[in-house]
Amino acid sequence: MSLATSVNIGKKPDPVTLSDLAATKVAELLADESANEALALRVAVKAGGCSGFSYDMFFDSEVADDDVVREFGAVKVIVDKESAEMLSGSSLDYEDGLNGAGFHITNPNASRTCGCGSSFS
């Protein structure tokens, strides 16, 4: 899996990187979403799920002062400060196979994940 090249904006470490396939798919989804060029992919960690935390991804155009912002080609990724700590070193990939298609986060900080794969601790 090759990772899309990121351009650091600010001085914080990358909380999450995107594979080339994930960056391409997010760019396609953003193009379909609207003509709003300010839209970016927000990746967050929220309380919930059977293991304690779950991932949340959605398009957002608002950036807080303490958000971590990275660019992967044409895709801007926003992560809030608290989520950035829990995601540090994570990678986002997109898979399209016989069992379905979707995004998958690999988080080296997760000590365990639930059976369905949608939450972690």
TrEMBL record:
Please give the InterPro entries that the UniProt record associates with this protein: ATAP (IPR016092), ATAP_core_dom (IPR000361), FeS_cluster_insertion_CS (IPR017870), HesB-like_dom_sf (IPR035903)
**GO annotation, biological process:** iron-sulfur cluster assembly
Q: Which positions fall inside the Core domain?
A: 16-117
Q: Which GO terms describe its molecular function?
A: 2 iron, 2 sulfur cluster binding; 4 iron, 4 sulfur cluster binding; iron ion binding
Q: Name one Pfam family in it.
A: Fe-S_biosyn
Q: List the Gene3D superfamilies.
A: HesB-like domain
Q: Which NCBIfam families match?
A: iron-sulfur cluster assembly accessory protein, PRK13623.1
Protein name stated in the entry: Unannotated protein
